[in-house]
Amino acid sequence: MTFVLDLYGILRDNWLLLLIGPYPNGPLGGIACTLILSVLGIALAFPLSVLLALTRLSTNRLLNWPATALVYVVRGVPLLMVILWVYFLVPLLIGRNVSGFTTMLCTLVIYEGAYLSEVVRAGILALPRGQMEAARALGHSYLGAMWSVILPQALYNMLPSMLSQFVSTIKETTLGYVINVQELTFAANQINNQLLTKPFHVFLILAVSYFVVCWTLTQWAQWLERRIAKKRRGLVAPKSSAKARAAVLEAQLDN
Amino acid sequence: MKGFDLLAILLNPEFGRMLVHGLALTLVIFVCSWLLAMSLALLLLTLRLTPSTLVQRAVAAYVSYHRNVPTLVQLMLWYFGIASLLPDNVQGWLSEHSAEALFSIIALGLCQAAYFSEDLRSGLRSIPDGQAEAARALGHGFVGSMRHVLMPQAIRNAVPALVNHSVSLFKNSSLAMAIGVVELTHAVKEIESQTFRAFESYLVATVLYLAISLLIMAGGAWLGRRYSVAGAK
Amino acid sequence: MITFSNVNKWYGDYRALTDINAEVKKGEVVVVCGPSGSGKSTLIRTVNRLEEIKSGQLLFDGHDIQAPMSSQQLNQLRSRIGFVFQSFNLFPHLSVLENIMLSPMKVRGVKRADAKSRAMQLLERVGLAAKAESYPAQLSGGQQQRVAIARALAMDPPAMLFDEPTSALDPEMVGEVLAVMRSLAKDGMTMMCVTHEMNFAREVADQVWFMDAGCILETAAPDTFFRSPQHPRAQRFLSDLRSH
What we know:
By secondary structure, chain A is mainly α. Chain A is 81% helix and 0% strand.
């Protein structure tokens, strides 16, 4: 019972720190920072991933090999190493120091860009070849067909996988702790360093917080997957065709 | 920049030793946690096949926890949290016997066990129903069907996913740095802070990680080919 | 050999099998035919308890197969009933020879050398001795089904059940499988076959059972059944078949 009371006590005293970090007495931190970092990370990684996927699918060796090399390197090297590289290279490239947040963001963009490009590539390859053939037969250029026909379908089908990657991104933000980014894990460690006597409680709260966020998103991804599968089988009428049917009926009534 | 001088790192005996120690520790953590993860995954799979819904839900909860909580946080919970709950004499013994590495192995092993068990489970589920029926029709019991017909196929089906997750486990060994284990990443950061030669130090570590990851992936591909179902598309 | 007494099976409101009373005598060949959804597959799968029944009794060689029993007893009973599936269900990770050897060795404790020689014998019998070291995926459908028959025969069953053995085959391969089944019948094997192959039924069967909607509507000798079916549903079924 004292265990639960202790947990409650820690939460009551520190909930603000866990939620938004030292703000306004410092940068935005806690869960808010974690989520902003994850959303920005995956949003910026997304165009990079599409670009990488397309270059990997191209038959031009000059485009294909560097992209494939980049993806394999990122897949074979720990995230911590990528952080170290970015921490070292970015200030060199732009001539001034950057905050931990920016470093972490760049790392996530590169790391998730590579992993997400595999998801996008899988989505494109999973479509029947007939789609591209039909588009080309109608006169679209390769890139035009990609933009109007292939990518919309592939990305829609891959939404659940992309949501899973988003969950991975959230988990990866924890490594910001190592370079003093003020996200949730950092905040929890701060609390622990102040309290010193209740490490299990603090880290349990930390674990549960991540669990709640990630689990909810994973459930959503699974729901999305089921819904997409149903739609593909034609069991769920898409909204647009319902509107079209209504419009046709109306037009018939007018006559 | 002092100019690229890789040999200053590689040939220097002190740094060379740090690198070798770091690499050795990385490999030890990887191998031990892999063995722990695989044995636990097989146990979890067996438990999941029992008729008791309580046991099945417990396994599902185990998997859900380890997949939704970041690995670093799991590591911290073990090393800072659970360690503090142990009796004092045990804590004392542990801190003298590389507790950090031990807890890293435990945390990483338990985490990957969840992923491995899901891979094996998917492998099992992708076997057509007719296989189990044929085995039963011939008179094999549950254990016999599993041993001779279903598990061999399940493991073959699961090899690509298992290889991917093995590479993840290998890369996760670097997380041990956060609790003070001087594995490869930590060693290289130490070298960098002493020599200021970030590029060279990081390059060595990157090449080593890449080489081993590619080795694991190639090994997995070889295993997949050797044990693949002959003639299957 | 196989006796159905008042066998019924239902799920909720749906009646899968209704009041089945029939018998397959030793050495007889019975063909079960009927439109799809008639329950013929369900019926044959109750014999080795791949499907359970809700009421009635089912005897196989004097044993009540649907009675409550330990799983060891059921496994032993099943090993005595040869079953050939529509989708062959060969074990893809084992060679053809290993597929046939596995169950005698693991279920009956037969020694490896004995199992191997018996397996080669059976492969000769179905005409596939040359394929002993091949794997199922390297064989055609007809060849796989013949191996499946050999695999079932390896357990020396007193009776063999065939659940639409040729329905999943390309037409040119149907003949080789039916040839094996014909030779089995000639050697006196008790057989119960669910099949659409009417010529096979005419040549080899001792009885034809016509099923629809879970009931056996007519049982007759093949000559009688094919020349002058009594039940109107059977007449309709045969005329539909002929019109193709």
